[in-house]
Design brief:
The structure holds two protein chains of two kinds.
Chain A (H helix, E strand, L loop, with lengths): L2 H12 L1 H19 L13 H27 L1 H4 L3 H5 L5 H29 L12 H25 L5 H19 L18 E3 L3 H21 L5 H20 L19 E3 L6 E3 L5 E5 L6 H15 L7 E4 L10 E4 L15 H16 L12 H13 L9 H12 L1 H17 L2 H8 L2
Parallel strand pairs in A: 4-5, 5-6
Antiparallel strand pairs in A: 1-2, 3-4
Helix pairs in contact in A: 1-6, 2-3, 2-6, 3-6, 3-7, 3-8, 6-7, 7-9, 9-10, 11-12, 13-14, 13-16, 14-15, 15-16
Chain B lengths: L6 E10 L6 E11 L2 E6 L6 H8 L7 E6 L2 E2 L3 H8 L2 E4 L11 H11 L4 H14 L15 H13 L5 E5 L7 H14 L4 E5 L3 H7 L2 E6 L2 E6 L1 H10 L1 E3 L5 E3 L9 H19 L6 E2 L18
Parallel strand pairs in B: 3-8, 3-9, 6-7, 7-8, 10-13
Antiparallel strand pairs in B: 1-2, 1-4, 4-5, 9-10, 11-12
Classes of the chains: A mainly alpha, B alpha/beta.
């Protein structure tokens, strides 16, 4: 029998296909639970980054499951009391364990890949840009899954007891999930569940090799322990050394050359940087021009008519002839009507924007023009602020947001004189963006 | 039968357990075995299984020397080579329920490093020898206890071992299978040392060329089944120095198995009277035996 034959035999013995499908189904069920109608607050951006972020998050559950399965399989010979029989055979035991652990790891990795394919497949109809260094996110997560399999194999090999595999899974779940909430310095060293790379972001180039070496060296070190081959202790020791160096480097490297000292920004964010290619505007060919970020180009066809309608409304008061998706907090040029970021706009396995999300987004666009917040208004909501805000909403056709009678009366007077309305709105936008409170009070009493 | 010594054990001691539970499972055991079927007989706790485990290189000896096929079992560099020539069926036989019988034996052929080019034939031969060729495609979990035992023997045979160690191999076999199995053992023993640990005197009578009686971790008697039967028919005498002899003329009507059983009981009784310091008894061959002749010696 060849190694290939043994691999096939181990695959069948482990129930490789079943394990792979079961793990994939677990991941898919988690994915389904995130989607409407099961989860009304959930959003789906139909970007690869969003899909991968979900895959990473699901690793908090799937990683411990992988470790549990691997531990159970690794303890099989002990449970079946085959120790004597196997110990009398010529082939070194580490080769036997390699075949067993290799088969179960391959099955588990396949299951994870199927789940990943199902989730990432959800964005295919709308995906326009894969995102910068998307492959690195996948690579690091795959290594994290292999690490979980190695940890499980090591525990199954060395720690006897039927309750060890489930106990290991619970402990790993706690160790994986808790750092996310603590935002501890070492959070990124947890190889599964913490790779939060969102839309328009990418992993930093200098982090990728360090993170891969960190997780990879752990896989090697714990893998050697799982195989129990004493002759390879030097390999394990070298891997441990690499892991220590990488762990230390990962505490420092992501912060070099960044604004702010370590600890100022959330640790999870320290591994990512903006992906300039993701936000390059992709615009309609015909006027009035509507632009979205490259990462949301799949929505342009649905967004353009809505944005143009809004441009028409806003254009009555402001000299804007172009609508463009901008990042949060960015106002853009004077002649640009800023469209707020198109997050949560997608539908799994379907192209185009979600109609409900599109409607909400349209309302938010105009509200973002009229809403303002100034430090002087902390804990208070003066009457003049409600008046000017409602007046602006009514001028832009946002009746649903307006309740103030004085605002309604002012809006009616302004609409009767378009020139006055344009002047008022121009003054309002300037004052609201600069928090010019006296001017805003003056506008309320226009 | 070849005169070559395939198994040589000298002053073997095996200590099991720790602390207060520590006990000497094998204590100062000497043994020399050539080709043939060697039956290990003895009461529960005599050390038979421990001895078989040590011979299988599963359990390290606490002291003493063991040489299999001329190789010291402590020689780590040659242990792998040695194990390629050992077949072993443990008393507690675990198996993989999802394997088919053929896969199970194939897997052990791989573990025993049977060359891939020869493995297919070796597996077929082993399955035929134990009468499981027609059940090769069945899953292990679907087999009866007797068939599982035969599958266990098949894995032990698959590497064509020169030292075959079988711990209670006939447990669960029906009478017909036992007869066939004993015949197989005799066939295998033409150029291999087959060590069979058993409680069944029928196995000894039907298959063994030699018997080794154990009690309290040491060998108390060696000889042939016929010699043991003779001791059973004629009776043993103990002279106070731990030396036994045969007395009386016995009964020609005794069946071999029952005679062996009586001989076995008599030897054990004599060994207990003699105490642990007494030398093992070499049971005389029926034709050569003479009444009252002292027959103490070590090894076979």
């Amino acid at each position: 029998m060849t190694w290939r034959g043994v691999g096939a035999l181990e695959w069948r013995r482990t129930g490789g296909a079943f394990v792979a499908v079961a793990l994939a189904l677990t991941g898919v069920v988690l994915f389904a639970a995130k989607q409407r109608p099961f989860n009304t607050w959930s959003t789906w951006s139909s970007t690869v980054a969003d899909a991968l972020e979900f895959v990473s998050s699901s690793g908090i559950v799937l990683g411990p499951v992988v470790a549990t399965v691997a531990a159970w399989v690794a303890g099989r010979e002990r449970r079946r009391r085959m120790g004597d029989l196997l110990a009398s055979t010529a082939r070194p035991s580490w080769q036997r364990r390699l075949a067993t652990s290799g088969a179960v790891s391959a099955a588990l990795l396949l299951g994870w890949l199927i789940q990943t394919a199902v989730v990432v497949g959800g964005v295919f109809p709308s995906v326009s840009y894969w995102g910068g260094r998307w492959w690195a996110t996948l690579l690091l997560m795959a290594l994290g899954m292999l690490l979980c399999a190695a940890v499980g194999s090591a525990f199954g090999r060395w720690v006897p007891g039927r309750l060890v595999p489930p106990a290991l899974g619970i402990v790993l779940y706690v160790l994986t999930a808790i750092p996310v909430y603590l935002d501890a310095r070492w959070i990124q060293l947890v190889p599964v569940g913490n790779l939060a790379v969102f839309d328009g972001e990418q992993l930093e180039a200098r982090v990728i090799p360090l993170a891969a070496a960190w997780t990879g060296s752990l896989v090697v070190m714990i893998g050697v322990v799982a195989l129990g081959r004493r002759r390879h202790w030097r390999v394990a020791a070298a891997a441990a050394g690499v892991a220590v160096v990488c762990a230390a480097a990962l505490q420092v490297a992501p912060h070099l050359g960044r604004d702010g000292a370590p600890g100022v920004e959330p640790v999870q964010r320290s591994w990512v940087e903006a992906d300039p290619a993701a936000v390059v505007p992709v615009c309609t060919d015909d006027a009035p021009v509507v632009c979205v970020q490259r990462i949301h180009a799949g929505f342009l066809r649905d967004v353009a008519p809505v944005a143009r309608q809004q441009l028409q409304v806003v254009g009555r008061y402001l000299p804007v002839d172009r609508a463009e998706e901008l990042d949060w907090g960015v106002t853009g040029a004077a002649d640009v009507f800023p469209l707020i970021p198109l997050s949560g706009m997608g539908q799994p396995y379907r192209s185009g924007a979600d109609p409900d999300a599109l409607q909400q987004w349209a309302g938010s666009n105009l509200s973002s023009l009229t809403a303002f917040y100034c430090p002087e208004m902390e804990h208070t909501s003066p009457a003049w602020a409600v008046t000017v805000s409602d007046t602006a909403d009514l001028l832009l056709g946002q009746q649903a947001f307006a309740q103030d009678e004085r605002g309604a009366a002012l809006a009616a007077r302004l609409e009767a004189d378009p020139a006055q309305a344009r002047a008022w709105m121009a003054s309002f936008l300037t004052a609201s963006r600069s928090c010019d409170v006296p001017e805003l009070e003056r506008l309320a009493a226009w | 039968m070849s005169e070559q010594v395939l198994v040589e054990v000298s002053d073997l001691a095996v200590v099991l357990g720790r602390g207060k539970k520590q006990r000497r499972a094998v204590d100062g055991l000497d043994l020399r075995l050539g080709a043939g079927v060697h039956g290990l007989l003895g009461p529960n706790g005599a050390g038979k299984t421990t001895l078989v485990r040590v011979l299988a290189t599963v359990l390290p000896p606490s002291s003493g020397d063991i040489s299999l096929l001329g190789v010291d079992v402590r020689d780590v560099r040659r242990r792998r080579e040695l194990r390629r020539q050992i077949g072993y069926l443990p008393q507690a036989f675990g198996y993989y329920p999802r394997f088919t019988v053929r896969e199970f034996v194939e897997y052990f052929a791989w573990l025993k490093e049977v060359p891939a080019a020869r493995a297919g034939v070796a597996v077929d031969t082993a399955l035929e020898r134990v009468g499981l060729a027609d059940r090769a495609g069945d899953r292990m979990k679907s087999l009866s206890g007797g068939m599982l035992r035969r599958a266990g023997v098949a894995q032990a045979l698959v590497n064509d071992p020169r030292v075959l160690l079988l711990d209670e191999p006939t447990a669960g076999l029906d009478p017909e299978q036992r007869v066939a199995f004993r015949s197989l053992l005799r066939e295998l023993a033409l150029d291999a040392a087959v060590v069979v640990s058993t409680h069944l005197v029928e196995d000894v009578a039907g298959a063994c060329t030699h018997v080794v009686l154990m009690e309290a971790g040491r060998v108390v008697a060696t000889g042939t089944p016929a010699g043991l039967a003779e001791a059973g028919r004629r009776g043993l005498v103990h002279d106070g120095d731990g030396v036994c002899g045969l007395v009386g003329s016995g009964s020609a009507d005794d069946g071999l198995a029952s005679a062996i059983e009586r001989g076995y009981t008599g030897v054990l009784r004599a060994a207990r009277v003699s105490g642990p310091g007494a030398a093992p008894v070499v049971l005389p061959e029926p034709a050569a035996s003479t009444s009252g002749a002292p027959t103490s010696a070590a090894g076979a």
